[in-house]
Amino acid sequence: KMYGEYVKNFDKAVELITAWSEKSPPFQELIADIQKRKVCANLTLQHHMLEPVQRIPRYELLLKDYVRKLPPQSPDRGDAEKALEMIFMVAKHSNAAIAEMERLQNLWVVYQRLGLEDDIVDPSNELIKEGPIQKLSTRNNSTSEKYLFLFNNMLLYCVPKVIQVGAEFQVHLRLDVDGMKVRALNDTQFPHTFLVSGKQRTLELQAR
């Protein structure tokens, strides 16, 4: 689990060192002084930080090769296969940790684009799809540009901001996925149209 945490924070840690090396000459000098020491073997701090990240994949490759070349009746086979299974689980755990970190980062970027700070902001939410859409107005037979964000639990019906200072979109309506229905319409004048019906409201939309 600690390995997973290390791998998960690796990119951020490297970015932080790079940023402070540029901002602070004393910090840069300190790092340079440490890197000159014999124990560092002429390698950079970033290189040493990368070593643990590469270690598990290396162990996995080594053990796979070792198990493949062991004679079938080798007394070491059982332990070697068990070790390979353990290393495989560690690799799987760290990959899952990285995937979860990336999901959360992408989610917060979306929240910033929407300027959200209320109960909609929930780390357990999952963004499924986003994209532009046309809203049909039956009163004057016209369409207007809108934008949809579909999460696992809600659909956000948004309007792109003309002056993009801060948030990119303004949320006009939130439809809960629970109880939502989608029905295609056969409209010859407006092709690719469909109805989205939720507890809050019904929207008539046109895709590209």
UniProtKB/TrEMBL annotation:
Signal peptide bounds: none
A GO BP entry: filopodium assembly
Domain PH: 126-208
DH domain location: 1-97
Record-level GO cellular component terms: cytoplasm
GO molecular function, one term: guanyl-nucleotide exchange factor activity
Highest taxon, organism lineage: Eukaryota
Xref: Gene3D superfamilies: Dbl homology (DH) domain, Pleckstrin-homology domain (PH domain)/Phosphotyrosine-binding domain (PTB)
InterPro entries the record matches: DBL_dom_sf, DH_dom, FYVE_RhoGEF_PH, PH-like_dom_sf, PH_domain, SOS1_NGEF_PH
PANTHER family named among the record's database cross-references: FACIOGENITAL DYSPLASIA PROTEIN, FYVE, RHOGEF AND PH DOMAIN-CONTAINING PROTEIN 2
The protein, known as: FGD2 protein
Species of origin: Xiphorhynchus elegans (elegant woodcreeper)
UniProt lineage: Eukaryota, Metazoa, Chordata, Craniata, Vertebrata
